[in-house]
Structure formats: C-alpha cells, structure tokens
Amino acid sequence: MPRPTPFHDRLQALCTSYAWKHWSGYYAVCHFHESPEREYNAIRQAAGLLDVTPLFKYDVVGPDAGRFLSYVCSKSVARLKRGRVTYLCWCDDDGNILDDGTCWRLGKESYRVTAAEPSLYWFEEHAEGFDVAITDITDTVAGLALQGPTSRDILRQVCDIDVDALKFFGVKKTTFKGGFKGHVTRTGYTGDLGYELWVRNKHALALWDLLMSEGKAFGIYPIGLDALDICRVESGFVLAGVDYTSAHGALTPAEKSTPFELNLGQTVQLDRGPFIGQRALKAEAERGSEYAFVGLDIDWVATEKVFAEYDLPPSLPAAAWRSLRPVYRGTRQVGRAYSGTWSPILKKNIALATVRADVASPGTVLDIEITAEYERRRVPAVVSALPFFDPPRKRA
C-alpha cells in the first residue's frame, strides 16, 4: 500500500477532487479541484507549492565520493563547486540510460543525489574499491517545490539566506523562520523561476504552514502532478517511465535510449577518466545517434478540420497526456510521441517525441496520429527545438 508523505495531513484537507495517484510508493495529488487549470496558472503567474518528497534521495560521503559519482554517472562531479547543483544521468555499460536526476555538492566530501527511480542497488553495486558511504534518506527528508514568478518573493520571507544571491542550480543550507534547518536548491521541474526546499520529516508541516502563510500575499497555491506535467512538457523535460524506459526495466533493446537520443548530451562528458558506459557513448558520438528527442507543434487548424468531419469540436484532455502516438513522414513511421499537452501560455497543442535523426531538424513537417470518433487520423506536426517555453526569469 502507498504511504502518506509528511505533508499528507495538509494535502488531504485541501484535495476536494479526491484525485490521487501513486508516486514511488507514496500518495500524491493529481489535482486539488475540478481541473489543474488554476494550479497551472499559479505556476506561470504567481507561485505553486508541490510535494516532491517521493523523489529518491541519497547522501554520498567520503574521501572518494566525487570520484565515485564521476565513475558511476556520465558527467564528472569531482570538480563541482561546493554550493552547486548539476543535472546528470547514469547509464549501463552499453550507454543506455538508467535514470536522470540532480547532484548537489554540500561539502568537500559530501554530495546528495536525487533520482526518479530507486538507484541504491546500482550505486552500491559499483561502490567497491571506493572509500565512500551511501545512505538512502528518501524516507527521512521531505521536499517541497516552490515554483513560479513570485517564488523568490516568498522565499525572502521564510529563510535566513540571501535569496537574491542564490544562483540558478545553487544550494544553500538555511534556517527557516521558526528555527528549523534545511536546504534550499534553485532547481525545479517546471521550467520557471523556482526553488526546492528540503527538511527533516519532523519539520515538514511547519514548513508547509510557513510557506502557505507567508505566501498568501504573493498568490501561493497548492499544486498537483497534473499541473506539473503540463509545465514540464512546455519546458521539454524528459520523464522517466514515460518519455524513456530505464534500461533496467526495458524488455527489448528497442525500448532503451541513450542520453544523446534524449537530448541530454549536456549530461555526458566523454574526455575524462573512465566511467560506466563511456566506450559505448564515445562510439555513438563518433557515428551519430539514430534517434533524437524533439518537440512537435501539432497543427491546430488541421485538428479542428478532422473533428469537424464528425460534427464535433476538437477533443483534448484537461491534463497532459501520456500515451504512445505514432509519428510519420509520408507513409513511413519515423518515431513516436510519448507525452503532450495543450499549452495554455503558448496557445499551442504540443508534444514530446523520439524520431529518427534524419527528420529531427527544426521546421521539418511530420504527421502525428490522432483519434476522432474512434478512428485513426493524421495531422501535420512541425518539429520544434526544445524547450517550447523558456522565460528569462528562470535563470535571472
């Protein structure tokens, strides 16, 4: 049975929709009321507050902590400065991605890794020969994502750090108003200005109440995973288990993906000491990738025309969709879209897809399959560079 997070008492009282799902063994809210519309608008126009406790979290400490993480991940973290966070992934020997997440450097020999999938076994399996200790803190540290244009204004009210000095992908230890300690990271999964706040479970409710109280004047609103999903599609962020399958869980080689195929080349540093998957990734970099991860801008006028043939208005889900939809170039299937959404801020119907590299150039016109009255049809979809939405305030 799923477990409640430390914030569950507050979430349960607010969730009048009764729309819950399971996330990594925890209960998680899909949307608090009838639809995610208000929650989405909070993220893009004010501030949304999301429980991210179910993310897997590991403390990695010891004299070889940096060297170990640089070996097990496709990006070197040994030179990551204290107080900085980096986005990375880890792969198997064939260069196929297992998971992606963040790595924080907290001290000379102290790091913290967040992950979407359980990764403790993989890390421990490869720790032999390194002077390092790995501790799973998933169930002892609670997290909240504070995301949106007014998130910085709220954060100034609740902690003792110089919020304006905390740069994009930075991390600071802080004492929150009320006297309890934790960490603030300038990170998030919405593609907007935002932060993530981390405290011990016993301080979770105090943190929630503090943020909701101090954030009232800045339009704070609790958000669920549906609103987050719309934002992350707009921002072009991959989602494990949706846009790619972990090599651990893939049933066939065709289900596996490399970082290069997922537009995650920035997480791969090839010319350095040995790391898991290095040989395979070097070979791929030399020959080129067979597939590419792209955005698709789905033709709205063509979609309307398809539904008009059935005397119907266009039918779109209120939340982002997660289902395989074939993508074509002429009569040839060239890829698949894995997730998409109507973007309220861009007023576009967009999707994230993996397509063959020879049709991945921005501006290329492909076709995507849609369904109207249970019949399969196709409409044009233009390949778009990612992200779709990238406001300057995200890094400001």
Description:
It is a single chain. This protein is an alpha+beta fold. The chain folds into three domains: 8-54 and 138-223, Probable tRNA modification gtpase trme, domain 1 (Gyrase A, domain 2); 57-131 and 258-287, Alpha-Beta Plaits (2-Layer Sandwich), CATH 3.30.70.1400; 291-393, Elongation Factor Tu (Ef-tu), domain 3. 20% of the residues lie in helices and 34% in strands. The chain contains nine helices and 19 strands. Helix 2 packs across helix 7.
Dominant shape: globular
| CATH structural architecture of the largest domain | 2-Layer Sandwich
H and E string = HEEHEEHEEEHEEHEEEHEHHEHEEEEE
**Which spans have pLDDT < 50 for at least 5 consecutive residues?**
none
**Quaternary state of the chains:** single chain
Main beta-sheet strand count, sense and barrel state: 6 strands, mixed
Radius of gyration: 21 Å
End-to-end CA span: 42 Å
| Fourth-level CATH superfamily of the largest domain | Probable tRNA modification gtpase trme, domain 1
Strand content: 25-35%
**What strand order characterises the main sheet?**
10-11-12-9-3-13
Overall tally of domains: 3
Share of helical residues: 10-25%
Structural class: alpha+beta
**Would you report the number of β strands?**
19
CATH class term of the largest domain: Alpha Beta
CATH-defined topology of the largest domain: Gyrase A, domain 2
Helical segment count: 9
Average pLDDT works out at: 97
